[in-house]
Amino acid sequence: MQAIAEFALPAVADISDAALTARLQHLLDNKTKPLGSLGRLEALALRLGQVLGTDAPALVQPQMLVCAGDHGLAAKGVSAFPSDVTWQMVENFLAGGAAVSVLARQHGLQLTVVDCGVARNVGPHEAPGTTRLLVRKVAPGTADASVGPAMTAAQCRQAIANGMDVVRSLPGNAVLLGEMGIGNTSVASLLLARLAGLPLADVTGAGTGLDAAGIARKRAVLQQALDVNAEATSPLEALAALGGFEVATLVGAVLQAAAERRVIVVDGFITSAAVLVASRLQPAVLQRCVFAHRSGERGHALMLAQMQAEPLLDLGLRLGEGSGAALAWPLLQSACAVLAEMASFASAGVATQTA
Predict the structure, then answer these.
(1) Is this model's pTM higher than 0.70 or not?
(2) Domains in the chain, number
(3) Which domain holds residue 142?
(4) Domain CATH code at residue 181
(5) Which is nearest to 281 in space by CA: 4, 3, 2?
(6) What are 240-258's pLDDT values in tens digits?
(7) Within a domain: residue 347?
(8) What distance in Å separates the CA atoms of residue 329 and residue 105, rounded to the nearest whole number?
(9) What share of the chain is helix, strand, coil (3-state, %, to 5)?
(10) How far is 199 from 262, CA to CA, in rounded Å?
(11) Which of 40, 57, 47, 60 has the alpha carbon at shortest distance from 21?
(12) CA distance 345 to 117
């Protein structure tokens, strides 16, 4: 994996700014409300101001980025659905019928779907104003990680570079992360187990709906993948050996978005796995992230704990696609609106609270 180690990744600087943080906190504390009474919305407003480097943060042209790919592991029965569902769901995204399609329309999010390694060609769909498809296919699905590395070093490098290039092409200052790929909860479990040193049983769940026997089979296959790829211990080595093309593409997207100081809205278990890898490469990535929700997938809470992340929502979601990120989006808009539009005690002529 030496070729991956030599790959130039974006530098992600520490954006800590005590003076800006103090200004933001002063603004929040002097709004017409009891101190801290908007709870975590205030912490969210503070985070958005820190990411965007201003005490008047505004979210501009938000982009929902859904990366899709297939997995060789899926042939071993690690999912309740067949691999064909990946390309069928991509077609559903493009037709506007998926949950993320509905939610993106509702909230004014531009939806871009990236074919990172779907086994079957999809699209094109070029109707103006609809979901965009970008084809950045590294290969028609990864190899079976239970018998060897899922990706070669060159393939992993290409997928990361693709993610970086895609983000460079997107307008706006906020990127919401989504994914699609039958078998990719297995990838997230593998990456968490390897990078955090957690027992596989603690981080492997039902995915798309496996029963108890299916979960046991899934864990057995994933243990084979960990054993066969035992020497892949660094973040990039683990990503290549265990990951998927869509996850690697998301790693590149996260690194580029962080380098450009965009707000990164993280969805569920799989997108969090991409952020986990990116943050092990560039820790300051986490300063730019807003974690949308805690999913119902076993292991996600443990993954969030690894990044000391406190998600905004806990709705038992386990769909993926970016659906949780889209649902959380109005909270980010509200946080900015409170900073920009809510009166201060002084401007409204309201008396402040006394001791």
Answers:
(1) yes
(2) 1
(3) 59-325
(4) 3.40.50.10210
(5) 4
(6) 999 999 999 999 999 999 9
(7) no
(8) 12
(9) 50, 10, 40
(10) 34
(11) 47
(12) 55
